[in-house]
Amino acid sequence: MAERKTIDELTLMDDYMFAAVFENTNFLRPLLEFILKIKIAEIKLVEPQRSEKQGYHSKGIRLDLYVVDENGTIYNVEVQTYTEGALPKRMRYYQSVVDISILSPGSDYSQLRKSFIIFICNYDPFERDRYIYTFENTCREEPDLTFGDDSFKVVVNTKGSRGEISAELKEILTYLDNESVTGPISRELDEAVNSVKSSEERRLEYMRLTLRDNEMIAKGRQEGRQEGRQEGRQEEQISSIRNLMDTLKLTAQQAMDALKISESDQQRYLSLL
After folding, report:
1. For the segment 208-254, what is each residue's pLDDT rounded down to a tens digit?
2. Which of 30, 44, 47, 42 is nearest to 98 (CA)?
3. Where are the domains of the chain?
4. CB-hemisphere CA count at 13 Å for 195?
5. Which residues contact residue 145 at a Cβ distance below 8 angstroms, ignoring those fewer than 6 apart?
6. Strands 43-52, 115-121: pairing kind
7. Cα 62 from chain centroid?
8. CA angle 148, 151, 153 (to 5 degrees)
9. CB pairs under 8 A, 24+ apart, for 110-113?
10. Is 0.90 surpassed by the pTM of this model?
């Protein structure tokens, strides 16, 4: 695993810095409006670095920015700097986690809100050289028929050159891509980045997050080793059961009884056999 950057090394394309700067709605609201070509009257909630995990065995994620506007529309905005990781399926998973977090038990599906999963990438995942790729579910047989589930996935490419975008958005994408200050917007962003780096409170927060992430990684490795040992014992038991069945012509039940496998484990082994 690569060593984590210090806060002084962070750019606006690093998730912590992105969330720290764009939790300011004066930056966030125009960014969303420029990307989606919409108007947002008011942002009601901005939650940076929001953790979501729907079950003990499910994969947890941390959302860079979780945003809700005056109409209840949800925007999840992420920055992506590495090409590995099956981007479309990752966006699908983020969409599902966001949807699950909306509905409480007994709620009607009609209460699912409009949502936008927005990934800002410093590479072109589709290699079509577009600034923006917007995806909406439509009917293959009737292309003009939309599915109407109010879910949208938007990929922004900081290195794009095709498509019509505003001069303001182009300035922001240029700054995100290479930190070039080319106008008043990028100058304000650069000042905001430097302000985060000079803030003692932000430095402590970043240190705490780094320590927490390192602890989670260490815990994950330990759990992985434990699961590996458990799987090894399980495979050994299955091999023993099959060996007794083959050599002594026993049934699976007789073999498990001979090996003194507990009743609570026997059903699991039967399904694996």
Report:
1. 888 877 776 666 556 545 554 555 677 778 877 877 776 666 788 88
2. 47
3. 7-198, 218-272
4. 11
5. 138, 139
6. unpaired
7. 6
8. 130
9. 112/149, 112/150, 113/72, 113/73, 113/74, 113/150
10. no
